[in-house]
Design a protein that fits this description.
The chain is built from 1 helix and 19 strands. By secondary structure, the chain is mainly beta. The protein has a 7-stranded mixed β-sheet with strand order 3-2-1-6-7-4-5, with no helix packed on it. It has a 7-stranded mixed β-sheet with strand order 10-9-8-13-14-11-12, with no helix packed on it.
Length: 316
């Protein structure tokens, strides 16, 4: 009978062991698995304090948008170089400037209009000094070195006249009486008359020689340099007689522009290297030999306030 208590003790011990085993399984089931050791946490051999995350190094000058900022100019293709062609020189006043379409309209000296395109390849000069497209202004007198891009006139270079304290004008003398101090000029690029005065100090020149003011004749083509006289008037310091009515001229040079529709021929003189606008008389019938670049000899009369070409010969 002494063996019964021993069996009960053994049974109680088995129940306690089974309860402990079930409790351990339950605890392990409720404990989430531990993540693997992080790569950004230093180990015990590191000099960083344990558990401190290592942050990536950032540039001090980096901004949040630096990685997505793009220079718009870098997205545009480079412009091709300007073709190496003979340039046609045209001169006049800028009467319209379109900076959106990059084009300008020039009222030509002697009449007519021309529209030319420009872009960053166009070289701008004020006098002999380089300038920028921002210096272009309506009303400025300009000379354009132009080439044809298909049927479009492109300005390879634009040369603006340097601003000085003196002014100048070129046109037809429409009002003058010998001995009078007042005279008026119709500028070739303005519908309004330019009224000026002359005095004893005004130099009148013809073909580089000083002549009397009595030589001035209504209908003459003249170039005038003037400045304010302090009383609200413009005083002519120099008057150059370019052409008297009915005078015959011989021009020798290279054709730089030709418009058969209007009968306009622009010639760069080989003698004085100036630009002259000549209008073809009705009797002149040009052939295929007349083109831009031709070397010609032209006989023209100054009539109706312009040079009228009556004959054209070709020179080698």
């Amino acid at each position: 009978m002494n063996h019964v208590p021993g069996l009960r003790g053994l049974y109680a011990s088995a129940q306690l062991a089974l309860g402990a085993l079930l409790l351990a399984v339950s605890v392990n089931a409720q404990t989430p698995p531990q993540p693997p050791e992080s790569k950004v946490v230093s180990d015990s051999s590191s000099s960083q304090p344990e558990g401190i995350a290592i942050e990536p190094v950032k540039r001090a000058d980096a901004s949040p948008d630096a990685a997505i900022t793009v220079d718009p100019a870098s997205l545009l293709p480079d412009l091709p170089p300007v073709p190496r062609k003979d340039a046609t020189l045209i001169g006049g006043t800028i009467t319209h400037l379109d900076r959106v379409r990059d084009r300008l309209t020039l009222t030509l000296f002697g009449g007519g209009h021309a529209t030319a395109m420009f872009d960053p390849r166009t070289q701008i000069y004020i006098g002999a000094k380089p300038a920028t497209l921002a210096d272009l202004r309506e009303g400025e007198r300009a000379y354009l070195d132009t080439i044809l891009d298909g049927s479009t006139i492109f300005a390879r270079a634009i040369r603006l006249k340097m601003t000085t304290t003196e002014g100048d004008t070129r046109g037809i003398l429409v009002k003058y009486r010998a001995g009078n101090v007042d005279f008026s000029v119709r500028d070739g690029i303005s519908p309004n008359l330019v009224n000026m005065r002359l005095n004893s100090s005004t130099q009148v020149k013809k073909q580089g020689r000083i002549v009397s003011a009595n030589v001035l004749t209504v209908g003459s083509l003249i170039a005038v340099t003037f400045k304010p006289d302090g009383s609200g008037h413009s005083l002519a310091s120099e008057i150059e007689i370019l052409a008297l009515p009915g005078t015959t001229f011989t021009f020798v040079g290279r054709v730089t522009h030709l418009d058969l529709r209007t009968g306009l021929l622009v010639l760069e003189s080989s003698t004085d290297h100036k630009i002259y606008e000549l209008f073809l008389a009705q009797s002149v019938v040009p052939d295929d030999s007349l083109h831009v670049g031709s070397n010609v000899t032209v006989k023209a009369n100054f009539e109706d306030a312009r040079y009228v070409a009556h004959s054209i010969g070709f020179t080698p």
